[in-house]
Amino acid sequence: MPAQARRIALPRAARIGIATAVTGAAFALPLVTTVSAQAHELPAAKPAAPAAQTAPAAQAAAPAAAPVEESYKVVGGDTLSKIAAAKNVDGGWQALYEHNRSVVGANPNLIFPGQKLALGTKAAPAAPAAKPAAPAAKPAAPAAKPAAQAAKPAAPATKPATKPAAPATKPAAPATKPAAPAAKPAAPAAVAPVAAPVASTSGFFAPLANPKLGTAYGVAGSMWSSGHHTGADFVAPTGTPLRAVAAGTVVKAGNGGAYGNEVEIKLADGKYAQYAHLSSIGVKVGQTVTAGQQIGLSGATGNVTGPHLHFEIRTGSEYGSDVDPIAYLRAHGVAI
Predict the structure, then answer these.
(1) Are strands 288-289 and 322-323 parallel, antiparallel or unpaired?
(2) Residue 171 near residue 55, CB atoms below 8 Å
(3) pLDDT, tens digit, for every residue of 198-208?
């Protein structure tokens, strides 16, 4: 047999040893590969930095309030000029009258208790801006730590490169300060002050301050049904305060036809003091008044050619029982 074809005979123990060594090497190779891969596994991803808080947006300005329509209910003693001054009506009593012509009528000097007058619209004060919104939620907790490594523990993950971002800046201040209240309407023209009433030594008063006589008592003429002037006229612009000449009880307070708005007071001595052509009445029937108390305002209601006060002193409550009112007041110490 040729030399290259000859099989080398090995002992049985040697063959078993060689096979075992080869098998062990084949088994060990994947194990070493797995352990090595695990040993070099990268650390878990760094925890995400918390989201920065978002500064709240500047608050939108509060919506403008709807204008408010104001009104006023007339009480005794009121006049358009008095109401306009007290309520700061822009444009004075003239504007108040134009706005309420359908209620007052053709005569601005004649208003009655209970009438409801519109004062016009006024802008409501602006509401302050809303408070800033609450700051954003706190940043989320960092991600969970990496899972434990199989076999030999991997090298510990490095610390995050940077610290979590600082919280956002403090909430911005409100966009604008609350709007300043609207300027008040211009004050109406000043009215000349009325002199304080001064009583006579007997406690009687003139029917108005600084009395100035117009048509005197007893003047004859066909314009008066009795043939003469039954009272004394005092020059007085509309709205002049009128007062009780003495203490007494109101027996008339209302419209008296040709006398217009009238007030009649029964005095303590039994005489009657009558006031005519008033623009406003400030008392009611049955009311007790004191000497010098305001009972209404002068005007031009009834049968007149202009504003004034027609004043009478009567021995009875009705027309035709008149006496000289100037002589009566002078007899009680009133200087006219």
Answers:
(1) unpaired
(2) yes
(3) 566 678 999 99
Nearest to 172, CA basis, from 55, 20, 258: 55
Q: Which residues pair with 235 in a beta bridge?
A: 308
Q: Structural domains in the chain? A: 68-122 (3.10.350.10), 232-331 (2.70.70.10)
Condensed to tens digits (0 to 9), the pLDDT of residues 47-87 reads: 444 444 444 444 444 455 566 678 888 887 787 888 888 88
Q: State whether the Cα torsion 180-181-186-192 is positive or negative.
A: negative
Among 111, 81, 77, 76, smallest CA distance to 93 is for 81
Distance CA 280, CA 79 (A): 6
Sign of CA dihedral 225, 231, 237, 241: negative
Rounded mean pLDDT, 95-122: 80
User: Hey, which residues does 213 pair with through a beta bridge?
Assistant: 234
User: Cα-Cα-Cα-Cα dihedral of 142, 145, 146, 147, to 10°?
Assistant: -140
In contact, 260 and 307? CB cutoff 8 Å: no
Distance CA 294, CA 156 (A): 100
255: Cβ contacts below 8 Å, ≥ 6 apart: 261, 262, 301
> In angstroms, rounded to a whole number, what is the distance separating the alpha carbons of residues 93 and 26?
116
By annotation, the residues acting in catalysis are 308
